[in-house]
Amino acid sequence: MTTPLTRTVRPPLSEGDDLPRIYCFANAETGDWIPCLAIAEDGAPLASHICSRAGWGPHDLGITTDLQHERYLAHYPGGFTLEWVPDPRPGNHAAFDAAMSRNRTLGEAMRAVTGPAPAVLAGPGPVRFQCDVGHCRFDFGHCDTCNNTVE
What is the full DSSP assignment across 67-131? Predict the structure, then answer.
């Protein structure tokens, strides 16, 4: 088992090691132009980026850089810990699985208010989460890939 890549970000004067986690992962297994995503431990989708290769995910989602940190601090102003999830398939990371379950619950709650989304078209390759126009994405939130809001 590999040790996950993590980075803790604290604004000035934050204290304590019990900061919420943001899970970052590649949403495809192989190939070029991979959607990489960040989801808060509470299930909120926070960021996405299409990376030329999955190996750029930690860079583009702010684990090894400061990219996306403004978005993350807007959600967790007291600080957060970023974690790269190398294998996001269900059953490989219990805390990540719990965050994805919370994301599905958020999506179901939103659909209960707004009604069902249009039919979802599956994209090529193994797809785990999709926006309503077929891009790999969270069940609920804003899809940066197509600039569409999934409701």
Answer: TTHHHHHHH-TT-EEEEE-S--STTS-HHHHHHHHHHHHHHHHHHHHH-PPPPPPP-SS--S-B-
In one-letter notation, the amino acid at residue 77 is: P
Q: How many CA atoms lie within 13 A of 33 on its CB side?
A: 5
Using DSSP bridges, classify how beta strands 21-26 and 34-40 pair: parallel, antiparallel or unpaired: antiparallel
DSSP code of residue 36: E
**Token pair in block for residue 84:** 């790269």
Q: What is the rounded CA–CA span in Å between residue 113 and residue 100?
A: 20
Is the CB of residue 107 less than 8 Å from the CB of residue 140? yes
- Provide the residue count of the chain: 151
pLDDT in tens, 33-84: 888 999 999 999 999 888 888 889 999 999 999 999 999 999 999 899 999 9
> pTM to 2 decimals?
0.71
